[in-house]
Amino acid sequence: MYHNNSLQSFSQSRTRSGASFHNSSAFMSSVIEKLHLVKPIIVSPSASGSYSVPYVIENRSTIGGFVPVAACCVRNHKWRNFMVCFTKFKFYI
Q: What's the pTM value of the predicted model, to 2 decimals?
């Protein structure tokens, strides 16, 4: 399990020199690639929705699931696309 408590450009997080991501989907892609994750289940609490929602919308075939927990900061994204994406996942209870 990977957990990043310090998303770039949030709170007091610091960016290492040379590493700058203005595209949140590119940031998520790079993390998933560097960790060699295959079909990850993304759990996205609170403001991390600004990173995860664009990635999920653009890359829905590459993830195993998505769990938004009180997602915020997603005002600029197309929720219609998100709902189409969301209905493609299987849920097991």
A: 0.58
